[in-house]
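User: I'm preparing a small set of examples for a lab meeting where we compare how different chains pack in three dimensions. I only have the primary sequence for this one, and I'd like the structure in token form so I can line it up with the others. Please keep the answer compact; I'll paste it straight into my notes.
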Amino acid sequence: MAQLARSAAACVIVGQAQREAAAARGAAIVCADPYLAYARLTQWWAAQLRRPAPAGVHPSAVVEPGARVHATACVGPLAHVAAGARIGAGAVVGAQSHVGEDAELGEHTRLAPRVVLGRGCRIGARGLLHSGVVIGADGFGFAPTNEAAGSRWEKIEQLGAVRIGDDVEIGANSCVDRGALEDTVLEDGVKLDNLVQIGHNVRVGAHSAFAGCVGVAGSARIGRHCTAGGGAIILGHLELVDHVHLSAATVVSRSILKPGLYSGAFPFDDNASWEKNAATLRQLHGLRERLRALERKTAP
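Assistant: Understood. Below is the structure token output for the 300-residue chain.
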């Protein structure tokens, strides 16, 4: 309340509990969810300020024969759209971006400058991929050999693609690898922060959100409405059910089959148990000294 009274803002967004205090200081928007209202207000404001991308293909761009670019789409300077690719209505291919052979960019989806949407990969409508994103690089697959000439790694060709749903946003320099056989999948509404790595054949359920530097190893299955704090790691071939939430830097080394908040590097645990153990660990040295003193007193 003190911050509200000191605020010099021309208008504030508050909940019902602050209605009277906000009205006393000036203009106010009163709503059930101020943070959500703020988000929608920023969207409106950005729409007023952002220049719309001009429809058409820039003279320096390359659109190969057989590609289909909607008349209302924008293909920016030095961009490349390969044969068989499809660019939907109102979509934007930013400067120096690449849309590979037979790839598909949904309606009103935007690729910022220097984004790669690889061969055969698809993203739905109203998506946003920030600069440096790579969709459809090869997954990390190599078979070890022990031949007479010495051990080495034999590449496993990645034959799948990446399928991304509607309303997905992917932060700068994040990567989603193509599948080995089947596709890697991000369902509708997934949000990835910067520097996130999604391995081959991973499936991320609808409306899950991962903060920066999260890594998901190959063939993991992530449920719907899951979240992961920055630097969290999910090992390969594991399953997380719907509504699992990981604190920052948590390392998931076994499947999580019960919704909840989980924390810890090694071993991770449900959040309540982890906090108790962490508190005990901080007192471990003192407990050890007390135990030694007790043993000396009771020694024969």
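A couple of notes for your slides: The chain has a mean pLDDT of 95. The CA atoms of residues 62 and 277 lie 59 Å apart.

User: Perfect, thanks.
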